[in-house]
Amino acid sequence: MRQSLSTAVRFLVCLACLFSSRAVPVQAGRLMAAEITYGSLSSGTISLPGQADTYTFTAQLGDAIIVSASRVSGSLWPKLRLYDPQGHLIADKSSAIHTEIAIDLVQNFIFLPITTNNAASSGPALQLRPGPPETIAAAPGVYTLRVSDGFNGTYTGSYNLYLQKRNPPSGAASAAYAQNVNGAIAQPAEMDAVTFTAAAGDRIIFGMSRVSGDLWQKMRLYNPLGVLVQEISSAIHSEMNYTIPAGASGVYSIFTMDGFNGTYTGSYNLYIQKLNPPSAAASLSYSQTVSGVIDQPAEMKALTFTAAAGDRIFAGMSRASGSLWLKMRLYNPTG
Hints:
Blueprint: H1 2-29, E1 34-35, E2 40-46, E3 52-59, E4 64-74, E5 78-83, E6 89-94, E7 98-105, E8 135-137, E9 141-149, E10 157-165, E11 173-174, E12 179-185, E13 192-198, E14 203-213, E15 217-222, E16 228-234, E17 237-243, E18 250-258, E19 266-274, E20 282-283, E21 303-304
Parallel strand pairs: 1-3, 7-8, 11-13, 20-21
Antiparallel strand pairs: 2-10, 3-9, 4-7, 4-10, 5-6, 5-9, 12-19, 13-18, 14-17, 14-19, 15-16, 15-18
């Protein structure tokens, strides 16, 4: 009898430990957490196996959020765990060098079962959008992030943590068509954000070139809702084209970052231009010679001319100075 009672006591103790390890640390940990805000980059170190650093941030309904973590030194596998204001685990991501979590705070949503043909449960509906985030949450308030090692909790090292809103990003620079924007990714996990206003039907080209450092050029384009619509990465120069869909006018965001596991750094130039027609373009006519200069990486110059059906046209371009490799692109009236 004493043995069975002792066994029962041990079971209850272990059960209590189980519940406390899952629920209590998240709530209690907020008392010792560092508070972070959108657009901020934080640095930390996991110096002991099993250690976890805790951060909190406040989110509002409608916020579209991205969180990233990159290893800076050591053997750490960055692991992110995101808890909602009630302490429920809603996202858990880890990777060897760089990891990210995307979350949208939606006011109300319905659950659509995928294993039955029953009607969805009652309640206000979520307006479905292309490219949904990994996680959808419904509660505004204080969210908790825990950073730890993702390889059995045994590796250690330093890391950078970046938090940003995607609709629109906090502290973002604004740009216009035909503008060259200079920037720098100075630390691992860092992202820069640029916003611009676009109208339905705009056909847009984006160019990003490395100026210094070992940065791999990575661009992400988000629509006014904060939905990722296009992404590209390359070692030295990246380009992408996008046409604004009908009914999707508004403020778009370009995020620039390192495309090699989020660890490389350097300066870059970003260029945005509309193709139908290009902004601030010079006009020319047949038999005319035009002089121009490309004086910054990623820069593009645009010229327009009027042509009639059946015209057979020749265009030539020669370098006058510098090391420029000559490149021409011809676009029709629709871009």
